[in-house]
Write a structure and sequence with these properties.
Chain lengths: 731, 111
């Protein structure tokens, strides 16, 4: 054992082995406030610092600090790495308590091998909100690293007295000159991805597939695609074994793959690190972030502050429940758990203690990991009061919006929760928060599959949804058609119904309102026409997404036709249903190139990336409104219920509110099942219309080279094919 | 397995002083302290090159990697660190944790 000497005999804590300490040559050169004053079973310690919370190194020791509003006593439990039993348990002397905070410095510990936890004593009285149990060793909510799940799906010791072990992390990473990139949000093209799913497939052809490190090997690909921001699905420490079970049909293990169930908010998931078994996940993740930044790619984390992995009253006690149940969770008057998250419990985010923890956590990730932004899962919960009611001015959201450390971070809300609070367009924003625009997704899907009555909404969506974000601007709208939760883009046009049988839940899980259309056959088909239409629909979707005002988000793999075989809820599958099959890149190279071209087009045309809403006026004297809408007749939008087509034109003279001169862009969208001729608005000053995209053309001809777009055959009209999109450039 | 360490510092005609540390066995968190002390010892000579002979090093724990970071901090960014014949798992870990760019892996020093 590498830690300070432990004695097997019980020795009472005794104060001040001072003489010994002072005579100890190794510590004669340290500050007087870092001398041990107490000793317990051979381990020396003294009163600690209340701040910061967690375990932090101090000269020759470690400062431990933890709070509980209702505990009657606290014991620090120290383990050597992986040991069955602790080498010492030190009760906090009452004089070490500052208010509700227990703090202690322990000396001569091997910080590399140390694992620590706490026992909290107090009443077990659920009706009063207390669930103390001193027989359980508890993880530190502020632990910077966790042991116990070091390697993905390595069978844990189920009899471990302390399964999720708090560890220290060190702040000696060499960031060189790295700095968060701080791109204007309107310039982002976000790529939502899952760390393991991105590179785990054998066709990824990387070393250590499925890890943080493997992302590095795909940075070149991300750059080629052109995205400048990746949004990582949860990377906080979670337990893939949670609720795991063998599939009764196939025997395959069903696990928590997505990770929306946090065990610890400050620790990166060791199982995602090739070096997790060495406890170096912190360094590995930082290395990837640094490398992504070096290549111009921001990193946004999908963070889950709405609930924890402890479940409801039947769940395991890991940390929060045993430390301060009433503080950390929203409880019913009877002492049960409110379940606004749909997972058993709800974090009590607007309790001041929890609020501070969330803020401390995000500050830590922003400052220590150089994270560029956060997407908050089920963020509506963050705006609920302690009794669950929605707050008009939620202090947590306000704190995050005005925090100086987070000042340049993107804050993105999933503005709904499982308790029925839907706040898309009304999420308390404080001038800072953007939202996953669920209405964008729904409207586009309906429009794309040819539903009637969508033109009015589409006009709003492509403008950055001013009907929802009038006072917040288009940058409040994170536009997406697909995300991890639901069909992939390919499946949106290959399946009418969800097909979730693989998890053996009889297809009961997952959403039923997918607004998808299989184009004529359910699932895979050899029908050439159907397959052509599917590919065209994918291109239609990507084309509209990337010319819409707001911030586009692409789901990992949609650019290469990824399928999940009609499954819209793959939360538990550690297999090809989630793993990105990189052989699709070769199979659907044209689709990749199409997406790549559209991203380049978006970057090349500032008129597509406005930070303010259009005014529908000509305020620069160009002779054109900043945006104008058209139908098959120019200047005449047909918004009647039966209409399935429209066009819009962005005047390049109005780009960036007139500060930049850009080309004029005209986008015609025809979701009618027959081709339609669109009259083109005439261009001034001898400019002519050129074709950048025509999704009705076969494969590679669907998109032309940026800057070398051919002129349209006619300058007065274009034929837009059935269920097709055309993008023209006036120059 | 045991761990042993020894070092020497020599004058090189053009490159200034060269400190060589010979590592053998398993470098875990305990032996990392010895490693750090050895670094501190040779740092006094302000070497230009630090050569870590790793041919006989079979394992390096995270504590050992942290000492590499420490050596840069202690001696300064101008220090060149050469790793002689490190085993592949050690190189992999250096790669994953971003330390590989701070060192030069060679078969023999001088490279």
């Amino acid at each position: 054992m590498a830690t300070a000497k432990a004695k097997t005999t019980k020795a009472k804590t005794k104060a001040a082995p001072v003489e010994t300490a002072i005579l100890d040559k190794s510590i004669t050169d340290i500050r007087i406030d870092y001398y041990p004053t107490h000793e317990h079973e051979g381990v020396k310690f003294r009163r600690g610092h209340a701040m910061p919370f967690g375990a932090t190194t101090v000269p020759n020791g470690v400062n431990f600090s933890i709070s509980s509003s209702a505990a009657t006593a606290c014991t620090l439990v120290l383990f050597d790495r992986g040991a069955d039993k602790p080498f010492v348990e030190i009760p906090f002397p009452d004089e070490f308590r500052v208010g509700d905070v227990y703090c202690m410095i322990v000396f001569d510990l091997d910080v590399e091998r140390l694992e620590y936890g706490y026992r909290m004593d107090g009443p077990f009285a659920p009706e009063l909100g207390h669930r103390f149990d001193k027989s359980v060793i508890l993880s530190d909510p502020y632990a910077r690293s966790l042991g116990g799940r070091d390697t993905w799906l390595a069978e844990p010791n189920w009899d471990d007295v302390y399964p999720y072990r708090s560890r220290l992390a060190f702040e000696d990473f060499d960031w060189e000159n790295d700095h968060p990139l701080e791109y204007p949000i309107e310039d982002l093209v976000i790529y939502e991805m899952h760390v393991r799913a991105f590179t785990k497939h054998e066709n990824a052809k990387v070393k250590n597939g499925g890890t943080f490190s493997a992302i590095k090997q795909k940075i070149k690909y991300l750059k080629e695609l052109g995205v400048n921001c990746i949004e990582l699905m949860p990377i906080y420490e979670y337990d893939e074994w949670e609720n795991s079970k063998p599939n009764p049909v196939t025997g395959e293990m069903l696990v928590n793959f997505w990770g929306y169930s946090t065990v610890n908010f400050f620790s990166p998931k060791a199982g995602y690190a090739a070096t997790g078994k060495f406890g170096m996940q912190v360094d590995e993740l930082k290395t990837v972030i640094k490398e992504l930044h070096k290549n111009g790619i921001e990193v946004i984390l999908d963070v889950v502050f709405n609930h924890t992995a402890e479940g409801d009253h039947r769940g395991h006690t890991i940390s929060f429940r045993g430390i301060d149940n009433k503080t950390y969770y929203m409880l019913t008057p009877e002492g049960y758990y409110f379940n606004f998250s749909g997972t058993g419990n709800t974090l009590n985010c607007n309790n001041p203690v929890v609020r501070d923890m969330v803020l401390d956590c995000l500050r830590y990730w922003a400052a220590d990991y150089h994270i560029d932004g956060f997407r908050f899962d089920l963020a509506a919960i963050l705006g609920r009061a302690q009794d669950g009611s929605p707050l008009s001015n939620p202090p947590l959201l306000e704190s995050l919006a005005y925090d100086p450390i987070l000042a340049k971070c993107k804050l993105i809300a999933e503005a709904w929760d499982a308790g029925g609070l839907y706040q898309v367009g009304t999420f308390p924003a404080y001038g800072r928060w953007a939202e996953w625009n669920g209405k964008y997704r729904d409207t586009l899907r309906k429009f794309l599959k040819g539903d009637e009555g969508q033109i009015g909404e589409m006009v709003q969506r492509i403008q950055g949804s001013p009907d929802l974000y009038y006072y917040r601007g288009p940058t409040a709208s994170i536009n997406f058609i697909t995300c991890h939760d639901g069909f992939t883009l390919y499946d949106t046009f290959a399946y009418n119904e969800k097909h979730n049988e693989a998890n053996a839940e009889d297809n009961r899980d997952g959403a039923n309102d997918n607004n998808s259309w299989n184009c004529g056959a359910e699932g895979e088909t050899d029908d050439i026409e159907i397959n052509f239409l599917r590919r065209k629909q994918i291109k239609n979707a990507l084309a509209i997404l990337l010319v819409s005002q707001g911030v586009p988000m692409i789901l990992m793999g949609d650019e290469m036709g990824r399928t999940k075989q009609g499954n819209n809820n793959t939360y538990c599958h550690d297999n090809e249903l989630n793993w990105l099959d990189w052989s699709l890149l070769k199979k659907n190279q044209h689709l990749f190139e199409f997406t790549q071209s559209l991203i380049r087009f978006r970057k090349a045309h500032p008129v597509l990336r406005s930070s303010t809403h259009f005014t529908h006026t000509d305020y620069v004297g160009s002779g054109y409104q900043d945006i104008s809408f058209h139908g098959t007749n120019a200047w005449a939008l047909d918004g009647s219920p039966g209409s399935r087509s429209f066009a819009f034109m962005l005047d390049g003279e109005h780009a960036k509110q007139g500060a930049i001169k850009d080309d004029t862009i005209y986008v015609a969208m025809n979701m009618y099942w027959e081709g339609l001729s669109f009259d083109l608005p005439p261009l001034s000053n001898g400019r002519q219309w050129h074709v950048f995209v025509n999704t009705d053309m076969p494969e590679k001809e669907a998109v032309n080279t940026l800057g070398k777009e051919p002129r349209t055959d006619s300058q007065s009209h274009v034929l837009v094919g059935p269920r097709s999109v055309m993008i023209l450039v006036g120059k | 397995m045991s761990f042993s360490i020894k070092s020497d510092v020599k004058d090189a005609p053009e490159s200034g002083k060269v400190a060589t540390i010979y590592l053998e066995g398993e470098l875990d968190s305990l032996s990392a302290r010895l490693f750090q002390k050895e670094i501190e010892k040779v740092a006094i000579e302000s070497p230009k090159d630090l050569v870590l002979d790793m041919e006989k090093l079979t394992f390096m724990a995270s504590a050992g990697l942290r000492v590499l970071i420490f050596s840069k901090q202690k001696i300064g960014p101008s220090l060149n660190i050469f790793l002689v014949k490190p085993q592949q798992p050690i190189v992999d870990t250096l790669e994953h944790t971003g330390l590989l760019h701070s060192v030069t892996v060679v078969e023999k020093y001088p490279a």
